[in-house]
Design brief:
Elements: E1 2-3, E2 7-10, H1 14-23, E3 30-34, H2 48-53, E4 63-64, E5 70-71, E6 101-103, E7 106-108, H3 115-128, H4 157-168, E8 174-175, H5 182-187, H6 206-215, E9 220-224, E10 227-233, E11 240-247, E12 250-254, E13 258-261, H7 265-275, E14 292-299, E15 313-315, E16 331-334, H8 340-346, H9 352-360, E17 362-369, E18 378-382, E19 385-389, H10 395-411, E20 416-421, E21 457-459, H11 474-493
Parallel strand pairs: 1-12, 2-3, 2-13, 3-9, 13-21
Antiparallel strand pairs: 4-5, 6-7, 8-15, 10-11, 11-12, 14-17, 14-20, 15-16, 16-17, 18-19
Helix pairs in contact: 1-6, 1-11, 3-11, 8-9
């Protein structure tokens, strides 16, 4: 079969869905290809055992680690991509994140444009994803054109008490910018949303916002179970001539005017490498970044945590500096509520009685530090397998961040603080494998996320990020997709 749409978008996660929402009003013929399927309404989406222990959602796909050993990467392939299980945190990168910054582990390079260039796209992305928040609480927050579309999600009483304790300990907790309709979410079950699949029940994700906006137009359509196998460039001008995918045992080839690749930082790199495309710089698959991340559980036997969702505030006291005029350390934010079944699933040796006690008297945090771009941190192909050669960086800063937070929590009256560093098997905001820049010798994409090698190829997922910063990347991915959308609109018009 052969079809000729105007635009093919590969992947329906944050980058693909947002781009589709941007382009659909043009009337262009848009085809979205998603290898996964929609999570059904009756999925066990509120069952921690089915999510964390006997996953009903994780793919059975395996990758290879640096030693060549297979592992389950923890990525998800659904309509809406990984946003279906994300924590719905929709941060802007700080203004300083667009500038060169010195870290303990090295230099985080400057972007090819300043924060102000992306700011209007952040505004539009916050409107599309209906962000709840109050940026006036956070002194590191960059300038906004106006308030968030909705007020901040409120702290539950137990978390309001934790916030007060942290403030007395000298910290400055600030509301997380969140994409969640709290009343609608809780009407489907008394559970948190962080790590829980969204069956269109109140989370503002790529399916419920970006795709919903795109598919409200008759000129946009999506095909599921459509796994792209390769792309081909025309020999004369280098433009992408065709995209081939497999669906229900059938091989289909499409010949679009424009191709937008948004399959995720690892799969996007793998598809480009397999197709032999967009790599005159040699940078495809390189500069892989994955946040340094640690889960922390702060225990106080006098504290009773009856919170349901918990994930409402963050601490950026050490985001731009370490508090002693030293380099940045990172962000700390509340995790979604770690209930006893989650503790038991992640620590099988823990007796359930202990897990119940610990959960009842603890509060859970997530510490994030920037992973710096390194050309030897790579996604490569090993035969038909994807191999991940992650070179973790900036760990001294991360260890200091965890230490600072533990000290603050003890000052706040939590005598025991447990922590666990996430390893490379946990996808902590993977990015950077097809970085944008202004030099085609070192970057894959130009500042509009267009390939330097193929002028009708765009990459609009986290692959494009030249740095990882130390906040959740989803909103930045959406903003970049909207920026790319404007460039594609100009090309379609011409």
């Amino acid at each position: 079969m052969r079809r000729t749409p105007d635009v093919v978008i590969i992947g329906s996660g944050m980058g693909g869905a947002t781009l589709a929402a941007s382009l659909a009003p043009t009337g262009a013929d848009i085809l979205i290809l998603e290898r996964g399927h929609q999570i059904p309404d009756d999925a066990p989406a509120r069952d921690p055992d089915r999510i964390y222990r006997n996953s009903a959602f994780r793919s059975d796909e395996t990758w290879l680690d640096e030693t060549g050993k297979p592992f389950s990467p923890g990525n998800y392939y659904n309509v809406g991509g990984n946003t279906k299980l994300y924590g719905a945190v929709l941060y802007r990168y700080r203004r300083q994140d667009f500038q060169a910054m010195e870290h303990l582990g090295g230099i985080s390079p400057a972007w090819p444009f300043p924060y102000e260039t992306l700011a209007p796209y952040y505004d539009a992305a916050e409107a599309l994803y209906q962000v709840r928040g109050d940026f006036t609480e956070d002194p590191t927050e960059p300038p906004h054109a106006g308030p968030y579309p909705y007020p901040a999600v409120p702290d539950e009483p137990a978390l309001a008490a934790v916030r007060r304790r942290l403030e007395k300990a000298g910290l400055h907790p600030a509301a997380l910018p969140l994409g969640v309709d709290l009343d609608r979410w809780l009407s489907h079950g008394n559970d948190g949303w962080d790590g829980y699949p969204d069956t269109r029940s109140g989370k503002m994700d790529a399916e419920t916002c970006g795709l919903a906006a795109a598919l409200s137009h008759n000129n946009a359509r999506m095909e599921t179970g459509a796994r792209v196998t390769h792309m081909t460039a025309a020999p004369d001008r280098g433009r992408i001539a065709s995209v081939t995918y497999e669906q229900a045992g059938e091989t289909v080839t499409v010949t679009p005017k424009i191709v937008a690749l948004a399959a995720g930082a690892v799969q996007t790199a793998a598809l480009l490498l397999k197709s032999g495309l967009a790599n005159s710089s040699g940078a495809v698959g390189r500069h892989f970044m994955n946040h340094n991340a640690t889960a922390m559980i702060a225990y106080d036997p006098r504290f009773h945590n009856d919170a349901v969702y918990q994930k409402t505030f963050a601490i950026n006291d050490w985001y731009l500096a370490d508090g002693d005029n030293g380099p940045p350390l990172g962000n700390v934010q509340l995790l979604g509520r770690v209930v006893p079944k989650i503790l038991k699933a992640t620590t099988p040796s823990m007796p359930m009685a202990l897990a119940t006690h610990l959960s009842r008297h603890s509060v859970d945090f997530y510490a994030i530090s920037e992973d710096l771009p390194d050309p030897e941190s790579r996604v490569v192909l090993n035969g038909n397998d994807i191999q991940l050669l992650w070179r973790r960086s900036n760990m001294e800063a991360h260890n200091r961040l965890v230490k600072r937070m533990k000290q603050a929590l003890r000052r706040a009256g939590f005598p025991v603080v447990l922590s666990r560093l996430f390893d490379g098997r946990v996808p902590s905001h993977q990015c950077g494998t097809a970085r944008l820049g202004d030099d085609p010798a070192t970057a894959v994409l130009d500042p509009d996320c267009r390939s330097f090698d193929h002028d009708n190829l765009y990459v609009t997922d986290a692959s494009a990020l030249p740095t990882s910063a130390a906040v959740n990347p989803s909103l930045t991915v959406a903003a970049l997709a909207l920026k790319a959308g404007d460039a594609i609109k100009r090309e379609l018009a011409s």
